[in-house]
């Protein structure tokens, strides 16, 4: 029973909320636009001619409340429109301020990028200058090293000492040949002639080459010296057979024979020394000819390297003098007439545009006064 009464109380409360506040404990201000006052039930079920006095009063009350609600809704609608216009004005001001700030930021960005690009261009020009200068310096060093290398290959002929020593040996050999008869004046003439033939006689041994292949380097003189020494030892060993007593002519004093053998041995040793020296000179001459042939090529290379080095020096000096300078100028300060000819600014002076315009104005004034004076003189002379 208690629960039933409680449920009935809750239903009455919900019905009252529905009638008064649409089922809500709190009505928001914006909900007034959605509020509607329900018409009385008899309005829909009965024509107005059948209404009772009480129903007419209820309907008038309904119209009064509906009018008041409409007025409240209209007031609230106007207040919302006013608030909306204020918000629109505020939004417009904020948008214009934002656009102005954005424009300033864009201008600042463009100026900043311009400065950055200018500095990047300066850095690029500096790096380019450094690379070009380093390339020129490396080329100069490379050419200098090559030039020094080719200049080191200087042709040198046989040493004067070697040539003089060979000449002395050859003259001493001729002298021994001439002194032979003088050394044996105490011997009969026919025996001297026989001894001279024996003096000219040489044993049959393997002859050394007097000419070497031109490809043999002068540094192989130790090998040539060994070959010469080996040939001399073979020749002296063969001479011992010719110096034997059985080869001595008849009726010749043994002492004279021994003296003859000593003279002939000295002659043979001198001949071997002359042959060795001739071999050395031949090798040196072949090496010298090879160096002379190479020297012609080196001379041409040296000339080419010298010319190239001079060109690099000129290019280096021109690069150091022709310095790139980055000048920031306002638009309209430089006005050039495009022509096919290359302008020469070697004797030009850079002035601000205001200075040039001032000079042009002065020139025009002076030219005008000169023209006036000339016209006045012409007028006087004409009269």
Q: Please, how many helices?
A: 8
Major sheet: none
Report Rg.
66 Å
Beta-strand share of residues: under 5%
Per DSSP E runs of 2 or more residues, the count of β-strands stands at 0
Q: What's the order of the H and E elements?
A: HHHHHHHH
Mean pLDDT across all residues, rounded? 73
Structural class: mainly alpha
Protein described:
The structure is a single chain. With 383 residues, the chain is an all-alpha fold. The protein folds into three domains: 1-27, no CATH class; 28-110; 160-319, no CATH class. The protein contains eight helices and no strands. It has helices spanning 2-21, 41-45, 53-152, 160-183, 189-200, 221-242, 254-321, 353-382. The longest helix has 100 residues, at 53-152. The radius of gyration is 66 Å and the shape is elongated. One of its GO terms (biological process) is sperm axoneme assembly. Keywords: Cell projection, Coiled coil, Cytoplasm, Cytoskeleton, Repeat, WD repeat. Residues 52-97, 288-322 form a coiled coil. It is found in: Cell projection, Cilium; Cytoplasm, Cytoskeleton.
Helices and strands, with pairings:
Elements: H1 2-21, H2 41-45, H3 53-152, H4 160-183, H5 189-200, H6 221-242, H7 254-321, H8 353-382
Subcellular location: Cell projection, Cilium; Cytoplasm, Cytoskeleton
Pfam family, one: CC_Cfap43
Coiled coil: 52-97, 288-322
What key attributes describe this structure?
cytoskeleton; 8 helices; mainly alpha; 3 domains; 383 residues; 73% helix
């Amino acid at each position: 029973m208690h629960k039933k009464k409680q449920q009935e109380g809750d239903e009455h409360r919900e019905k009252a909320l529905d009638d008064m506040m649409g089922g809500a404990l709190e009505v928001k201000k914006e909900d007034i636009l959605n509020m509607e006052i329900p018409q009385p039930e008899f309005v829909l079920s009965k024509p107005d001619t059948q209404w009772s006095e009480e129903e007419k009063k209820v309907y008038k009350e309904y119209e009064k409340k509906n009018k008041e609600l409409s007025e409240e809704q209209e007031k609230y609608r106007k207040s919302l429109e006013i608030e909306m216009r204020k918000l629109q004005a505020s939004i417009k001001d904020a948008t214009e301020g934002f656009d102005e700030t954005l424009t300033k930021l864009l201008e600042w960005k463009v100026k900043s990028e311009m400065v950055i690009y200018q500095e990047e261009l300066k850095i690029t020009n500096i790096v380019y200058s450094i690379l070009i200068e380093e390339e020129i310096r490396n080329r100069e060093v490379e050419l200098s090293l090559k030039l020094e290398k080719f200049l080191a290959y200087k042709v040198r002929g046989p040493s004067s000492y070697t040539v003089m020593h060979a000449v002395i040996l050859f003259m001493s050999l001729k002298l021994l040949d001439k002194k032979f008869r003088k050394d044996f004046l105490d011997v009969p003439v026919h025996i001297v002639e026989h001894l001279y033939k024996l003096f000219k006689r040489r044993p049959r041994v393997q002859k050394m080459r007097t000419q070497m292949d031109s490809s043999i380097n002068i540094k192989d003189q130790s090998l040539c010296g060994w070959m010469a020494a080996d040939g001399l030892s073979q020749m002296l060993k063969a001479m011992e057979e010719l110096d034997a007593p059985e080869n001595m002519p008849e009726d010749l004093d043994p002492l004279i024979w021994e003296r003859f053998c000593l003279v002939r041995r000295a002659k043979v040793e001198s001949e071997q020394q002359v042959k060795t020296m001739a071999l050395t000179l031949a090798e040196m001459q072949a090496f010298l000819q090879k160096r002379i042939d190479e020297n012609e090529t080196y001379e041409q290379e040296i000339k080419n390297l010298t010319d190239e080095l001079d060109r690099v020096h000129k290019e280096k000096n021109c690069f150091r003098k022709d310095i790139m300078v980055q000048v920031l100028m306002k638009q309209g300060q430089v006005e050039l007439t495009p022509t096919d000819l290359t302008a020469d600014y070697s004797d030009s002076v850079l002035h601000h545009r205001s200075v040039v315009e001032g000079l042009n104005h002065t020139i025009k004034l002076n030219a005008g006064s000169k023209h006036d004076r000339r016209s006045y003189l012409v007028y006087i002379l004409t009269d």
